[in-house]
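Internal ticket #5521
Category: modeling
Description: The requester needs a full-assembly model to guide mutagenesis choices. All entity lines are attached below as received. Residue total reported by intake: 786.
Assigned to: D.W.
Attached entities:
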Amino acid sequence: MSRKIIELKNLTKSYNGTKAVDNINLFIRENEFITLLGPSGCGKTTTLRMIGGFENPDSGDILFEGVRINDLPPYKRNINTIFQRYALFTHMNVYENIAFGLRIKKTPKDEMDRRIKKMLKLVELEGFEKRHVDSLSGGQQQRVAIARALVNEPKVLLLDEPLAALDLKLRKEMQIELMDMQKNVGITFIYVTHDQEEALTMSDTVVVMNNGVIQQVGSPVDIYNEPKNRFVADFIGESNILEGVMIEDYLVEFAGKKFKCVDKGFQHNEPVDVVIRPEDIDVTRREDGLLEGVVTSVVFKGVHYEMLVESNGFEYMIHSTDMQEVGSEVGLTFGPEDIHVMKREVTEIEKQG
Amino acid sequence: MVRYSAKAGVLSAIFMGLGQLYNRQVVKGILFLLAEILYIIFILPYNIESIRGLITLGDKPQEIVDGKIIQGDHSIFLMVFGIISVIVLLLFIVFYLLNIRDAIAVGKQREHGRVPAGFINSLKTASEKGFPYLFLSPAVILILFITVVPLIFGILIAFTNYSSPDHLPPRNLVDWVGFDNFINLFKLSTFSRTFFGVALWTVVWAVVSSVTAFFTGMFFAVLINSKGVAVKKFWRTIFILPWAMPGFISILIMRNMFNGQFGPINKYLQAIGLGAVPWLADKTWAKITCLLVNLWLAFPYYMAMISGVLTSISNELYEAASIEGANAVKQFTKITLPIVMYSTAPLLIMGIAHNFNNFNLIYLLTMGNPTNTSYSYAGHTDILLSWLYKLTLDQSQFHMASVVSIIIFVIVAVMSVINFSYTKSFREEDMVQ
Ligand SMILES: Nc1ncnc2c1ncn2[C@@H]1O[C@H](COP(=O)(O)OP(=O)(O)O)[C@@H](O)[C@H]1O
Ligand SMILES: [Mg+2]
């Protein structure tokens, strides 16, 4: 494990009395691709802007390589930002945009040329030096913004929904390019998005946020398979979320029955939320199922069928490669490891060291 | 193959309508024929007479016989009627050419074996094809007589000696003098000294007044838009007030305020122990006063325009610049200033063109005074246009006024062209280094 490069300690920021970011604790490792994920307005941008130095936290500390940087101006932080709408200097050409910071630092001409050439090669815009940024496509403008940020050789790059303005195809291409670039250049990316698929595809670590509070931190696989609460489960993907009661360790009751599970550490008879992913449920003959139900709808989704099965007043969503007729009576089965038990109330969860 | 077209063309050239008749288009031919006959009988003699008048500008001066005035020729009326006649003649010639073209076109159709269209049909196609022209023609004719005639008249005056005291109709005749007036303006010391003196001040005035107003406007715009300023709306409203008031009222108020003897400004200066300033009486102070008053009146306009540009600059741009280490000064010079100049430089040039002819301000504020004894009919603060006004309305020096107005026209036209190409090149090219 590489060392921590940024740490956020009890970071809080309010606007007009409402908390945009509420007591966040998080650390980010060197060369990590970490993504802040959450619905619009959950405080992702605010968090990012505090790291970048554009907002001052009301309380809490921001550490960079162990040193408190709360009071450093943005340009002294060794952190650079890709803005949501790129923030290119439209009155300058590509070369001048990238050269902006170098000129201010009075970099010698030949070194400046060399570094800009290298950057243009990295973002595959060689030969575009003299082009006016207005004449570039969205994707190209994005690359110029990346080149401008990376030419200063920052240790951390902040990206606030950088792909939101691109169309789907270009977005997919840029996702891959950004991931490659991050690995090749070897710097830390702190990435913000509200798109769960993007977050799960690109990141080493995903931070799920809601209402200014971190809900869960973990690898994409962890987040997907072991959502810590109802919000995460719901936000990360289509899920069957049921209310249940944890009878004892390894035994949970929902849908009127008791099931074996792999979760423990709850109180006796504690109310919980239970998640079962649509692809973890198997459809069987009626008499072989743990639960019985009636198929109410079937939609073909390209690689699988998406079925709704009504059982005991709850509609289960199931992804399966076998099709069942609408109206047919079926059984549903799942193993103990397919049942994810979560605490009922939304709590603040901190990343474990 | 029969060469209908050539024959028809020649016939129509000889007399309107003949070609059409030859093409078996009887009604059309007769109408054309009638048109020419009517023109020859009713209009042509009058045209010839007026054009002769335009050439001679009259040869019978006003006479006084036995104490009675016997009216002679009025040169100026002759000139106006002459110009109108020339235009009418030109319109008739265009009509004549159309008639020939029509005859040739129909002749060509016949060569290709087509039967020429009947009157009703050609009327139909004409009204279909010519519909837009039909609607435009009243406007075109109106423009010809309302705009073009006075324009030509104004230009022609420059080539006459139409002036007080010896060449003022109806008492005297006016004569063509060729380029004498232009030569005199540059050679005759009284006129050339005035012209160059006034022209120099006009240029200085136009440039300095616009540039000061522009940058003062920018200064206030940047100030109001800066982060720390609360209630931006209030400041914007306060500063826009001088501009919202009708200009001539503000100027007349200013004229009283700056009055050397009774003006509140001098009263105030004296009250706090400073001496009175000859705001309008001294030649240098009068110029400064003009510039100050214009500054007061014009900067809100630029402030409003530049404010608009400033608010459209995304805050992210400044944040991006601040990551790169740009301090406030660098952010202004490398972002704000280029972006503002980029979109408002044409306004500045338009402002210069406007002030070049800002008659209102000069005339209402100083009337061109204080007088300059070495100038003919102009004062120290006169700009070309106010001098022009004096030349015509006070001094009846119409010939020189016309020369000056032609020169003003050329200068303003050149500035407009420059502005136009400048704006265009601005759009098309990078403007950095
Ligand atoms: N400059 C600001 N002034 C007032 N409220 C703000 C400001 N910036 C953000 N907020 C509020 O803070 C909350 C979090 O916003 P933000 O961090 O932009 O969310 P996200 O980026 O996750 O969509 C929102 O409710 C937003 O309205
Ligand atoms: Mg945001």
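Resolution: model delivered.
Comment from assignee: The helical segments of chain A are 44-52, 94-104, 109-122, 138-150, 168-185, 196-202, 220-225, 230-236.
Ticket closed.
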